[in-house]
Structures are given as structure tokens and as C-alpha cells.
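Worked example 3 (structure in, sequence out).
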């Protein structure tokens, strides 16, 4: 997982605990951590699209 990408997705800086969890997740197999990052990015995109549709 990439700190900058996560912070862009959530619109704020990660907390110290979130940074620790991100570093822990980065110790997982790349396929697993990549799947989690993909879910986060999909959720961000879905929220963005929902906001656009509600204009």
C-alpha cells in the first residue's frame, strides 16, 4: 500500500495507528495487500460517482 495514494483516497493524512496498520499490511503478500488497496480505491470511486450523480 502506498501512503500517498491512501491519503488521497481518504482526503486526509493517516493517523499514527493507520500508518502502523498500513506498514503491517505491506508485510502481507503483494496479491493480498493489492486486493485491499483495490477495494479502497473502488470505494473512493463509488463515492465520487455517487456525489456527481446527486448534483
Amino acid at each position: 500500500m502506498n501512503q500517498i495514494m491512501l491519503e488521497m483516497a481518504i482526503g486526509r493524512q493517516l493517523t499514527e495507528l493507520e500508518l502502523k496498520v498500513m506498514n503491517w499490511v505491506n508485510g502481507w503478500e503483494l496479491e493480498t495487500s493489492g486486493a485491499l488497496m483495490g477495494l479502497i480505491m473502488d470505494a473512493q470511486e463509488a463515492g465520487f460517482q455517487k456525489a456527481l450523480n446527486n448534483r
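Notes: DSSP finds three helices and no strands in the chain. The mean pLDDT is 91.
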